[in-house]
Amino acid sequence: MEWLSDPAVWAGLLTLVVLEIVLGIDNLVFIAILADKLPPHQRDKARVVGLTLALFMRLGLLTVMAQLIRLTTPVFSFWLFTFSWRDIILLVGGLFLLWKATTELHERLEGVEHAGPARKGYASFSLVLVQIVILDAVFSLDSIITAVGMVEHLEVMMIAVVLAMIVMLAASKPLTRFVSAHPTVVVLCLSFLLMIGFSLVAEGLGFHLPKGYLYAAIGFSILIEFFNQLRQRNQIKSEARVPMRDRTARAVLRLLGDREGLQQAEGASTQAQIAAALPAAFGPEERNMVSGVLTLAERSVLSIMTPRNDVDWLDITQDTETLRQQIIDQPHGLFPVCERTGLDQIIGVGRAKDLLADLVAHGQISRKVTPESTLRPALIVPETISVIRLTEVLRQSRGHMALVSDEYGTILGLVTPMDVLEAIAGEFPDVGENLSVQPIGPDHWVVDGLVDLHTLELALGVPDLAPADDEYSTLTGLILAHSKQLPVAGQVVEIQGLRLEVMALEERRITSVDVKRLAGGDAAGHAPESASN
């Protein structure tokens, strides 16, 4: 036991412990990868059994150290190569590592499982254990042969192996969890095993490769992967600051199974952008409806309502015949009933058939809202209400119509559940009405001046027409915002790769716009903006 007082022995022990841990990392990584193929309740058992077998195998190999040393004696020669049992074992072990690492990489990169159709997602415990035993034999032999040349005392070798294995057992579970949670690390570790396999094959053929080169390459790769993991961590933190609605939209795109579309949708904020990002396997109507739902929360109620000037209302001061004819001529089931001045003096809302019944029975419409009258109180909502909140208000109030008011109490327009549906599924024109966007040729349309910009984005495939601050919501507002002047017939505005020409006006309101896609523009809209008369 004189060696206990020798400082060189203790230094050798410490060095050997560190070396055994380093040499055992590749074994531990592969055990972690193999254990990940088992059901969760069997992974810890496989990990402990695998490392315990490695410990006993290395202790057993140490007891026959003399035989291991003699394994370097040449056994036979082939062509220019001379092989010993050590060379044969290293060569076979290296080829096994190359085969196993290549197979695992193929599975990870291509998503192909080794097992047949009967596999239910997990490998059998016995199969994984056999692979672990084979790996233990390969890695243990390389480790022990390396250790034999470092120290002279068998006891020191055994102590170093036991201490190193204790450290590996303690670190195995955290390492396994880390490997399972980071797929790129698994690919990196499998690449390491490929390098180690090539190294063993080279040594088996008599080409000595300094371990320093191998460890330097592994260390550099680990440094690069560290930066990659740091980037991913910062990206996760950044995504956590993204609104829940946007993250949900991306998740829906992932479920639809289009990675390219998902990448396009990362920066998508408009309905047209998200619709363009959806996979082509879905029809245009399906894609527009999905994108309509995803963008509904960000839309202002002003973008879906019927403007005040287009609202049909009944003036209660009119004579009976005028009111009756107006109700018959208009294809509406509900009417706002107002005083002479209009929507700002609304009395209530009535159904067309009930109002006609009143006119026939009493010659007039009730001027008061009572439980006995045909009129119901008008539902008035602020212009700041979101479309999602408006839907809930309409549902709870059992109303079929809501009037939108600004901060001064002025009625801006009217919105119905049909308007919400049109925001999702597209336009449903009434009898006698035309579509707001009518194609008249390739890349050529005639558009209503009051068309909603979200609808126009979908019809033309041009994103970012609607402003983020809801400053305006119609094509007329877009033209006025870019021309900076009152509209006149023949006025031209070029924006987002589109040429917009004012065709007709009623007083100062644009009623018709000729829209053409510029030759240099595309669906993304990158043409320069300009305005002219």
From TrEMBL:
Subcellular localization(s) per the UniProt record: Cell membrane
Pfam family, one: CorC_HlyC
Alphabetical keyword list: CBS domain, Cell membrane, Membrane, Repeat, Transmembrane, Transmembrane helix
InterPro entries, A to Z: CBS_dom (IPR000644), CBS_dom_sf (IPR046342), FAD-bd_PCMH-like_sf (IPR036318), FAD-bd_PCMH_sub2 (IPR016169), Integral_membrane_TerC (IPR005496), Ion_transp-like_CBS (IPR044751), Transptr-assoc_dom (IPR005170)
Membrane topology: Multi-pass membrane protein
Repeat keyword on record: yes
GO CC terms of this entry: plasma membrane
Superkingdom, natural source: Bacteria
GO molecular function: flavin adenine dinucleotide binding
Stated family: Belongs to the UPF0053 family.
The protein's name in its UniProt record: CBS domain-containing protein
Organism name: Paracidovorax wautersii
